[in-house]
Structures are given as structure tokens and as C-alpha cells.
Amino acid sequence: MDGLSAAASGIAVVSLAIQLVDSVREIRRFLRDVSEAPKELKRLMDLLEQLELILENIGALVERQQQGATQTDVDMSGSIMRAMKTYYDGKQQGDEDFRFFQTGFQKRDIEDFEKQLHDAISSLNLTMTTNLTIVHSHGIGHLLAQVTATNQMTSSISKDLLLLKNGSSADTNYRLSVTATARIQGNNQQAKAKLSKRREIAFSSFSGPLGRLTIKREARASVFEDEEKLSNISRTQSGSTWVFMPSFLSYAFDFRYLNTCGSVERTLRTYPIVPYSHPVWEMCEQGDLRGIQKLLSNRDISPFSVNSNGWTLLHAAVGYAKPGLCRFLLDLGLTGEETDVDGLSCYRYIGFTTRRHNIDVEKTYEVLLWCASKSDVTSFHAELFSYFFLCHSASFFIRMVGDVLTKENINDCWRPPLAIASRIFGRCSPSDRNLLKPTIQYLISLGVDVHRGPEVMFTSLDLILEETDCPWDSLSIGKEWLDILIESRIDVMEYLRTKYRLHFDPSRSLPMLCSKWDFDYRARYLIISEEPPSISWDWFIDGEGNAFEVLEEFKNFGPGGHDICWEHRWPSSMYNWPFFYSRWHLLAEYIRSLSRAGIAAVQLAEERFERRWHKKARKIARTQGVIHRSPKIPGAWID
Questions:
Q1: Where are the domains of the chain?
Q2: How far apart are CA 367 and CA 357, in angstroms?
Q3: Distance between CA 612 and CA 553 in Å, rounded?
Q4: How does pLDDT run across 30-81, given as a tens digit for each residue?
């Protein structure tokens, strides 16, 4: 660019010199034509001649200099232009690249402007910091102490509520009442404040010939007492929700009464009840968005329709993991806060019908997370981990924990997240366990109870050990679990002692492993050692039981899915009966009470056991020489 500018300047100088020479010549001709010119004019003509000569020399000199100095730059500029033209034609992005090219020349100006902005921001931050420091010294410290105490008190309330909920979840009608008090110490050592909160929840359900009525009452009260100012500040809030589903109408009525600090709000909502036989529920299961849109456009149904259990279309879409349908219903006006007759929102039913993790479950979670971010995030956090049977993948569970769980809401979940993490840890592969270890340590650092499981007397350790098929696997995975606790700075010795106390069965004088979720009903007892720390299980076989020798012989063949409940339908599945004798032996009384076919199945199993038992006894007698007969194949007593 410098070469081109120099060439242009030289051309301009030469052109100007030529024009001046022509002008001087014209003036000289004019002066010669003037008659009787005085001496002054002659001197002027001499000067003009000298000027003409000088200008001609200047023009020639500049022309020679420009030819020698800028010829190389001009040639180079031509090459640059040709290269740029080729590049623009080849890439078809000439306009965009040219804008970048122009921006490069303004880089220094941009850097100067950026520096000015940084200086202004630094000055503003300094001013704000100074101002906040002054404000903090006049009362923010006292307010922070109040907030901290409130947070501690809220955590205490959440823990108490969870304990009360676990104890009363089996009842249709229940009442919860929790009171928490916190004392706040301000900057002044003599000035104190007390914050008390009380929350009561009552849930009742009535069913009769006329329909079903559900009543939920909730009351909250808080009192803040400041001893320094001798003042009390109280806040109250009460609300009632009545949901009536008449059997003689196709609509459900939802009446809500809310009283907050003297302000009363009442709402009456009407929901059309759609029976289970309606095709819309099958469309929700299949994710048929076009079919549902057609029903809505024809006004055959309402987007706020419910079934007899209070499930909305959004409940069904979430339960069947249909993210596109969920997004559509949320855009229509559903908020995700709609509850069924049990008071549960759709957040609790993610993957409810599938019970398997897939990509649709993750997409449904993303849609609900987006919805909850605009409304009730607390309810989303509490109910997200409530469905225990969904088989989360390790990566998806890690993502959920990072998205929603903090130290403030870790105890608000209906189910302890550590219990779900333990169940996944016992089922996943060794590589996924390595991915899950930091997340488990993070949950422990948030303050979760390492002993608490999804239900009373069912701990997180049970969920891990019950996933193993043999004692050797339980020893390995138990060591991995204890290593995680050691890295999380948990007292492993005290942890093992607590486990022993929780699982001790006085009738057997052993700590027994709870196995509620597995299909194998064989009893197992825990082997707990403090030096070195280890925990595992082994089969518990009653030495006085009728099937002792059978169970002892086949105890390490592993569990299986054999179920006596279906043996009368598929008799061929009974070929492997010795491996699963413990299961149908435990369920014998229950199977007898089902039907005549169940009685026949139990009788057949017992007859088979007696026949095989006599065959084995005869085989042992022949081996001892009591009975002399031709030998048979070992193990022939087993069909």
C-alpha cells in the first residue's frame, strides 16, 4: 500500500508541473503581445522564463525518481492483487474476508478502546467494593447471620419432614407438623434474635359411591424476635386444596384457598375427566403428537384433561418419556406444577413406565429442567430423585447431580440421592464406577447420611451388595465402597460398627443383608471385619431346615429369574428346580393362597424334592456298600 501511495503522489506532482509550465507559457505569450510594455514587465517575463525552466527540471526529476523507487512496489502490488483475487474466487468468501482485512487496520484503535473500557470497569469495581464495604459495616453482617441461621433451620425442617414422611407414607390420611427455632448472634455480643418457623401439612382422601374427595391443608407460620429492638415480626400463610372427582360427572373440580398475611385468594378449576379407554392415552404412550393435535383442534379433549387418578396429559407424556409431546403441552399452558390425586407433580414420573434409561429420558429431563427454571425449582429438586426404580446410567446421574443438587437442597429430595448412586454403583461396569466415584464423594461432602437408604432398615450398602451374584464379587465391590468412604474422610471403623448394629438379627445372631429388590430370595448374612476394613456377604443356610443339603450343595450356582408364580403356566421352566428351591420354599404359603393352580404347583415341587431326596439317599447308601447294585452316572438323582 505504501508503494501505491508513493506512485500516486509522484504522478500528481508531474501532472501539476506540466500544468504550471503550460500556464507560464501562456502568460509569456500574453506579455509579448502587449505593446509598449514597461521595464517591469520585461523583468517579470524573465522571472517567468526562469520559473518555466525550473518546473520542467522538477517534473523530469520527479518522474525519474518515481520510476526507479516505486517500480518494484507497483509490480509487487500487482502480484498481491492477483493472489487475492484468486483466493476470493476460489473460496467464495471475498466479502467476509475483506471485512476481516479492513478490521486488521483498526486493531490498534480497538486495543486502545478496550484498554479504556478495562480502566473504566476497574474504577467502577473499586467504587462498588468500597461502597459495599461501608454498607456491610452498617448491617449486612447482621443480615447474613440471620440468613445463615434460617438456612440451618430449613435444613433441619427438611430432615424432620423426610423422617415423618417415611413413617407415614403408607397411610392414606396423615398429618405432619414440624417446628424449628434458631438463635442469631449479631455483631453486638449482648444483642440476640430468635427466628421460629412452624409448618403443618394434613392430607385426607375419601372415596364413596359419589366419587373421590382429596383434601390437602398446609399452614406456615414464622416469628422473628429482635431483643435489641424489642420487636416481633410474624408472617403466616395457610392454604387448602380440595379436589373432587364425582363418579356421575366427567369433570373434576379443584378448589384452592390461600391466605397469606391477610390477603385471601380463591380459585376454582374444572378439569374434564377422560377415561382410560380414550385413545388419547395410547397416543401419549406412542408419542403421537399429530393425533393429539387433531383431537385438540376438533375440541374432542382439553389439554387440561385428567384421568381418574388425576394424571394430566403431561403426566403421561413424562411417564412414557416423550420429550416432543412434553414441550408441546408446556407451550399450550401446562406449567408442570399440576398434581394428581396423590399430590404428585409430573416431575416424579420421569421414565415411570419405561424403567430403563434411554436418550428420550434424558431429553424429557432437559425439557422439565427448562420448565422448572421458570417456575418451581424447589419442587423439581425434591421430586427428581423420588422414583427409585428408574435405571439411570452413570453419566446421566452425574449430570443430574451437577445440574440441581447443592448443599441447600440436598436434604429436600424425597429419596436420598446417595441411595440411588449406590444402586447404580452396584450395577454398572468397573469403568462407570470410576466415573461415579467423584460424584459419590461430592454427595458425601454436601452432608448426606451415608447410612440412610430409600426405606427404613434398608441402607445404601444393601443396594450395592445385593447387586452381586456371589460372595467373591461382594468382597471386591465392598472394598471399593470402603475406599470411597476413606477418601471422603469418613470414619470407616465407626461406619462398620453402625452397619453391624443396623443389620443384626437376634433370631439368627448374625447381621443379615436386606434383599428387597432382588429376585433371589435366598437369605444372606454380612461378614464385617474392622482389621483390615472389609465387608461382604455369604449365603445363610439354616442347618435345621428340610432343604439344608440341597441348598448347601447348590449355593454357589448363582441366582436366577425362576419364579414359582409362573410355573403352572410354563412347566418346562421347572427343570432347574434345585437351584431355586429356596425361592419357592419361601413363597409356598403365598402360592397356595392364589389359586388351585398355585396349590398344584407347590405340591408338584414338594413331590419332586421328596423323590430326589430319596434317590440321593439310596445313592449314598450304595456308595457306603449298604446296597449293592450296578453303578449309575454321578448326579443321576437330579432330573
A1: 2-89, 146-273, 548-623
A2: 16
A3: 14
A4: 656 655 556 666 666 667 676 666 767 666 666 666 666 556 655 666 666 6
